Amino acid sequence: MAADIVDMRVIIHVVKADLTRNVEIFGRMDPFAVVVWESADGTKQEASRTRTDWNSHMSPRWDHLSPGPVYKSASSSSIWDSMLHLHVYERDMLPASDELIGSASISLADILGDGPREAVEQSPSHNKWDRLSGPPMDLPLLGPRGETAGTVVARAQVVPTTAAHPHSSDNMVFSATKVDPAMFKAVVPLSVSGGTAAFYQLVLQSPVAGQSS
User: What's the CA gap between 118 and 124, in Å, rounded?
Assistant: First the structure.
């Protein structure tokens, strides 16, 4: 017998941004985005950060999936009163010098839309819904002084979780390709990006002709 559905998790897909505010004096911008959740009581928590889209300047694309909070009651009004904040930054060589390009904010109720909310509230026990998605939305970005900075495209999804496995991959929208570690003979350090993120190369035991090793 399947486990009872008791909670629901929010997933945010940060797709891309179309920027109109340039904070880079020389060269092209390297933007990244920060996903922040604000609960109904005003508590804020950083959920995740996208990768830096190097040299993308005014048109970064991330296709980033960010796991949001797990709510204990799918019918609780606190879910719909929660706020999503997206902050887009220009990556600097020193993380402390990253410069804010613009921010966007929207309630979970608004980014999901009426359809998913009605489905959850009408059937909080999950017997009539599985994964509910809102449409992609162009959210206006405002700079630190309220100036127009462009738009960021994001969408939200809610998925049920089980009491036994609240963080199980079965409850996620993420997908991963599993590989046999025996396929690789070495892990080669390549470089460090911006002084923080390390990059590595996996070297195959038996590369196929015409493909990368």
Answer: 10
Q: Is 73's pLDDT higher than 50?
A: yes
Burial class (CB in 10 A: 0-12, 13-18, 19+), 63: exposed
* Residue 213 near residue 207 (C-beta atoms within 8 A): yes
> Is the torsion defined by CA of 106, 112, 118, 120 positive or negative?
negative
Q: Which amino acid is at 47?
A: A
Model confidence pLDDT, tens digit, residues 14-47? 999 999 999 998 899 999 999 999 988 889 999 9
Three-state SS for 96?
helix
> What is the average per-residue pLDDT within 157-176?
53
For residue 60, report the phi and psi dihedrals to the nearest 5 degrees. Answer: -70, 145
Question: What is the pTM assigned to this prediction?
Answer: 0.72
- Report in angstroms the alpha-carbon separations of 63 from 12, 58, 75: 10, 16, 29
